[in-house]
Specification:
Layout lengths: L4 E2 L11 E2 L1 H13 L3 H14 L4 H13 L3 H15 L5 H12 L3 H14 L6 H15 L14 H12 L3 H14 L4 H13 L3 H14 L4 H14 L2 H11 L7 H13 L3 H11 L9 H13 L3 H14 L5 H11 L18 H14 L6 H14 L2 H9 L7 H11 L6 H13 L6 E5 L2 E5 L18 H14 L5 H17 L10 H15 L6 H8 L3 H15 L13
Antiparallel strand pairs: 1-2, 3-4
Helix pairs in contact: 1-2, 2-3, 3-4, 4-5, 5-6, 6-7, 8-9, 8-10, 9-10, 10-11, 10-12, 11-12, 12-13, 12-14, 14-15, 15-16, 16-17, 17-18, 18-20, 20-21, 20-22, 21-23, 22-23, 23-25, 24-25, 24-26, 25-26, 26-27, 26-28
């Protein structure tokens, strides 16, 4: 280091000027305040000359160079600091990242920024670094591969572990959470999520040990107590669950995160009244009141205890906040199927699926696990929702379950659907077959092909309007009636419609002599047999012969005659026509 210089003149009573790094540093700062960057740079250079091993002086020079747009020169100095003067001065990587970003060298900027976040312990520039990450992700069109933020001591890794849990990557989450808890034993949130991860993969003993580790450090830790209640609930340990729930129901957390955890826990353990109280609080607080999931959960809780008007209020709120989702509208329809004052059985789960189909699939899965069929009230709600708000596929699914929820209200709704101008004619014909299979005998109006017509319930128009059964010989029409009558309640509307379409296709393509107008039951049996095979439905010639009162040989002949025209055999893998 150079010796400080003094200007002679003490003998004349003049204060000597101390020429050192501090002097030039102060002058550089005054120059910066006056925006005299060239002078500031010279003064900082002089400070470096006096203290060549002081990294701060170099960083000040690099800062001025960056300010005047000389980003490359600035990075050259910063690299010198890291390589030669002070390798532990990790903030230089952040400064270099800024310079590279200003030069639009985004890959290099990302490299230096990651180095800073992974090595810097103080984290003075964490907020600025997070803003830069957003910029780099936008420019590079990909996520930043950040795996560790040293200044946050496991916080970032914990966030990633929580994401893994949400994605169902339980084993990966366990490995990461175990590392976090080993390195930071007092990170209780990581211990709690480790307990959940253990539980998800069936490691219940490890899960409880993780919770006990939390409660040992913090006996009042709400997340640990809630997790323990959930474990006891799914284990069926009511003797342990009851006192814990009794204690939890007396709590009213202040923080939203704690309030949400307690609310969802109360819902899971079937304490719906307590869950409703907490969710109602959340719908009035901060960002939570703008979250459609929160109002949906509040509606579920209200519905589960029979407060249907309150449930309707919250689902209307959900619909206003999430206009793209059909779920709120579906649940509003479900409410109309319920009796006021009576809770829904089984109770609704606290989940917010992306589509109605996912919600219904979840219910169907739960019913299968109980060894039951999905309750008719859910099928009925799906039927009304599908025909009012959804697409062709949803309507076809609803028609398949029509027999489980058919009544006068459903019949009236379907009749109104048949009069709609812009709906699919194919779906309308399926609806007509469904109405007939449900036993409706009265004639009804329908809009088909843009024309309004009255249809006898016993004579439904087929897929091709030019090939209507009414235009055929009455005996061939009788064949269709026999097949429909024998498959009623056993085949759904789609199968029945396809069976009659198959028959009409045969009539339009094949030549049938008057000598074959006998034994109509065999023709009807052949239609059912072919349709069953097309849908992989078990059937034998013997069954068909008994059902229709005819012989196996005659049915077999009729099956082969129809197949000779339509080539149905080629669509199947096995020689199904053999006995």
């Amino acid at each position: 280091m150079k010796k400080n210089k003094k200007v002679s003149g003490e003998q004349h009573g003049i204060t000597l000027l101390q020429l050192d790094a501090n002097l030039f540093y102060e002058r550089a700062i005054r120059s910066l305040d006056r925006f005299h960057y060239d002078k500031a740079l010279k003064y900082f250079q002089k400070a470096v000359d006096y203290e060549p091993n002081n990294p701060i002086n170099y960083c000040n020079m690099a800062g001025v160079l960056s300010e005047i747009g000389k980003y490359g020169e600035s990075n050259h100095i910063l690299q010198k600091v890291i390589n030669e003067i002070d390798p532990d001065m990790t903030e230089c990587h952040f400064y270099m990242a800024n310079n590279f970003a200003n030069m639009e060298y985004f890959e290099e900027a990302e490299r230096e920024l990651l180095h800073y976040l992974q090595e810097d312990e103080e984290g003075h520039f964490l907020e600025e670094a997070e803003e830069m990450i957003e910029l780099l992700q936008y420019e590079l069109e990909r996520p930043t591969p950040l795996t560790k933020v040293k200044a946050r001591a496991g916080v970032y890794e914990h966030i990633r572990a929580r994401e893994m849990l949400e994605e169902g990557k339980f084993l990966e989450a366990i490995r990461l959470l175990e590392t976090i808890t080993e390195e930071t034993p007092d990170f209780l949130a990581a211990h709690n999520n480790l307990a959940l991860a253990y539980y998800y993969v069936g490691m219940t003993n490890d899960a409880k040990q993780a919770i006990e580790a939390v409660l040992k450090q913090d006996p009042a830790n709400l997340h640990a107590l809630c997790n323990l209640a959930i474990f006891y609930h799914y284990e069926g340990s009511q003797d342990k669950l009851k006192p814990l729930v009794a204690m939890l129901t007396k709590l009213d957390p202040f923080y939203q995160e704690h309030l949400f955890k307690l609310a969802t826990t109360m819902g899971i353990v079937k304490e719906h009244a307590a869950a409703l109280r907490h969710f109602q609080r959340l719908t009035k607080q901060g960002e939570a009141k703008k979250d459609p999931c929160i109002s949906h959960f509040a509606a579920v809780a209200a519905c589960n205890i029979g407060k249907l008007e309150l449930a309707e209020k919250f689902w209307l709120m959900t619909r206003s906040m999430d206009e793209q989702s059909q779920l709120p509208q579906f649940f509003l329809i479900l409410l109309k199927q319920m009796k006021p004052g009576l809770p829904l059985q089984p109770s609704l789960s606290y989940s917010y699926f992306s589509t109605v189909e996912e919600q219904v699939e979840a219910w169907e899965q739960q019913a299968r696990e109980r060894g039951e069929q999905l309750e008719s009230i859910f099928k009925r709600a799906y039927l009304f929702w599908a025909f009012q708000y959804s697409d062709r596929e949803a309507k076809l699914k609803a028609i398949n379950d029509l027999d489980a929820c058919y009544d006068v209200a459903v019949e009236d709704m379907l009749k109104q659907y048949l009069l709609k101008q812009d709906e699919d004619d194919y779906v309308k014909r399926l609806v007509m077959y469904a109405l007939r299979s449900m036993g409706m005998e009265d004639a009804f109006d329908v809009m088909l092909g843009g024309k309004l017509m009255q249809v006898d319930a016993q004579r439904v128009p087929t897929l091709e309007s030019s090939s209507n059964l009414a235009d055929c010989d009455p005996l061939w029409e009788r064949v269709a009636e026999l097949s429909l009558a024998h498959t009623a309640r056993r085949y759904n509307a789609i199968w029945q419609h396809d069976m009659i379409t198959l028959w009409i296709n045969y009539l339009s393509k094949g030549y049938v002599s008057t000598s074959k107008l006998t034994k109509l039951e065999a023709w009807a049996a052949a239609l059912e047999y072919l349709t069953a095979k097309l849908y992989n439905k078990p059937i034998t010639y013997h069954e068909a012969a008994v059902r229709y009162g005819t012989s196996i040989t005659t049915i077999s002949k009729r099956v082969k005659e129809i197949d000779a025209v339509l080539g149905i055999k080629s669509k199947l893998k096995a020689p199904w026509y053999k006995r």
